[in-house]
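ingest -> validate -> predict -> emit
validate: passed (alphabet ok, no gaps, 311 aa)
predict: started
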Amino acid sequence: MKRISCIDIGTNTALLLIADLDPKTGQIIPVCHKQTIIRLGKNVDEERQIGSEALHRLVSCMHDYGRISAEYSSATTIAVGTSALRDAKNRDAIIEAVAEATNIKISCISGHEEAELTFFGAIAGTNEIPDLFSVIDIGGGSTEISMGTPEKLTQSISLDIGSVRLTERHFTTLPPSPDELLAAKETINATLAAPTIPFLAARENVFGVAGTLTTIAQLSQGLRHFDAEKVHHYPLSYAEVRKLLEKLKTSTLQEIVNMGIPEGRADVITMGTLILLQIMRLLGIGEIRVSIQGLRFGLAQKELHRLQKNI
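emit:
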């Protein structure tokens, strides 16, 4: 058994998974989960720079995750950054600053790597996986869609439509104006149109990961607080997503917070829901199976396979 810490540093949220890896049984046994809203990608779409305040939030979070990892006697820490780091011109300086302050070395992974790790992370430990399926990951800065079999990823795309990126680009207030909603929808549709056609083949078996999907699953069930057991594997229908968007697009930030969504996600969940609805509409997806797993589980699985090769 080996205990590791896997950290997924996204545009909006940093996620920590501490897990025991058993190379003999092939099991990933979660020991600790934590998520922190850091909004690393604030203004990155426009300025292509990660600002000093965002860096401070990231360093503080990594200090916290390093402390937790030490408390749990984690042997290895694997940290990766995604869309915000990919887009930032000062990413090398950010990575260096975090390493100097916390001894945590962040790797900036490509959109394809992110999609592949998320694809296998979403189904880790899941029984009765379809022969062909797809995974949708709506993040703060980008959206990844991947498709394949339980053994192999066959196709993936990474698109620059994320909940933070498009909220900053299109919405000036909550609720957004009808013109702002229309402009956002046009941007999403134009981005999705051609690249998503191959994924029609797997529209009957779709998994959805990351904060947008899990938050929508929480809201759709009327939960005031996140409940992992009720959200994981929740069958989220197109009708539910459409109904929720109708409510969100007329709601103020405070009204969304009052639904049980923290402020760091409440201001971007309307856009995230719009992105999901357009994906489901364009691909004809009737239902998505929500997974609380994702990239960090993919990192754990990759390390598990490395250990198994060395047995």
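DSSP finds 14 helices and eleven strands in the chain.
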